[in-house]
Amino acid sequence: MSNIHKTAIIEDGAILGENVTIGAYTIIGKNVKIGDGTIVDSHALITGKTTIGKNNHIFSHATIGSIPQDLKFNPNDDVELIIGDNNKIREYTLFNPGTITGHSKTVIGNNNLFMGYTHVAHDCIIGNNSIFANGVTLAGHVECGDFVVIGGLTPIHQFCKIGTGVMVGGASAVAQDIPPFCLAEGNKALVKGLNLVGLRRRMENRADIDALKHAFRVLFNMKKPLQEAAFDLYENDKNPYVKEMAKFVMDTKRGIPFERVVKSEDE
């Protein structure tokens, strides 16, 4: 049995799973689907063509599925927001669906924490097990891998890609792509090193971390152009995490922001 407050407005056509809780004065639109066990606190708005999975918790005053902040958006466009399972979406967050000029979907995975005032704009793709601290703003078409941590008050520019296992320091400004397993910070954000704390938490095999340390030195000591160094690593290193990092660098469209933090052997 679901628990729906008597002041909540559930429009005809909305589909609610089992054991869903809807708080006071919350509005659920006609094209919304909410999975089993999800909790929506008071004064939230869930609208548009929005699908929400199981066991999420959406806190009060969140706005989920409202039209994109895109002047080109046509209200007749068939766009969508898809949210997975076990996410925590805190107060005053704003999530938008896609736009027809993009791939028309915003997609959010599982087990993520979106702290207060987080904004996820149109056509973003977000993986699993990530943390977006207070005031993080993702512009349109941003892509984030799994196990990403973005520090508070950090904006991320349109079309940027954030790799798996990345940590971005608070109050940074991300304008280019950040490779997997790296630590970035600053305004504008630069790759400073590996996210060693995250790696040690997630990787049991120390050899994998050592392989990534070697790969980082190869990429960013500037003995070779970045793309050439990435290609050599991808072709010659058998470690799957190194290949993931190298492939990301090879495929970047916005470039990799870094400073020379590793000295060459002859310095």
Automatic annotation (TrEMBL):
Top-level EC class, please?
Answer: transferase
For this UniProt record, the keywords arranged alphabetically read as follows:
Acyltransferase, Cytoplasm, Lipid A biosynthesis, Lipid biosynthesis, Lipid metabolism, Repeat, Transferase
The UniProt record lists the EC number as: 2.3.1.129
Catalytic reaction annotation: a (3R)-hydroxyacyl-[ACP] + UDP-N-acetyl-alpha-D-glucosamine = a UDP-3-O-[(3R)-3-hydroxyacyl]-N-acetyl-alpha-D-glucosamine + holo-[ACP]
Provide the primary localization: cytoplasm
Residues covered by the UDP N-acetylglucosamine O-acyltransferase C-terminal domain: 177-256
Is Ligase one of the keywords UniProt gives this record?
Answer: no
Which InterPro entries does this entry report, sorted A to Z? Acetyltransf_C (IPR029098), Acetyltransf_C_sf (IPR037157), Hexapep (IPR001451), Hexapep_transf_CS (IPR018357), Lipid_A_LpxA (IPR010137), Trimer_LpxA-like_sf (IPR011004)
- Subcellular locations according to the entry: Cytoplasm
Record-linked Gene3D superfamilies: Hexapeptide repeat proteins, Udp N-acetylglucosamine O-acyltransferase, C-terminal domain
Pathway, according to UniProt? Glycolipid biosynthesis; lipid IV(A) biosynthesis; lipid IV(A) from (3R)-3-hydroxytetradecanoyl-[acyl-carrier-protein] and UDP-N-acetyl-alpha-D-glucosamine: step 1/6
- Molecular function (GO) terms listed? acyl-[acyl-carrier-protein]-UDP-N-acetylglucosamine O-acyltransferase activity
Example of a GO cellular component annotation carried by this entry: cytoplasm
Task: Return one Gene Ontology term, BP aspect.
Answer: lipid A biosynthetic process
**Subunit composition and interactions:** Homotrimer.
Can you tell me which family this protein belongs to? Belongs to the transferase hexapeptide repeat family. LpxA subfamily.
Known function: Involved in the biosynthesis of lipid A, a phosphorylated glycolipid that anchors the lipopolysaccharide to the outer membrane of the cell.
Task: State what protein this is by name.
Answer: Acyl-[acyl-carrier-protein]--UDP-N-acetylglucosamine O-acyltransferase
Q: Which organism is it from?
A: Aliarcobacter trophiarum LMG 25534
Q: What is the lineage of its organism?
A: Bacteria, Pseudomonadati, Campylobacterota, Epsilonproteobacteria, Campylobacterales
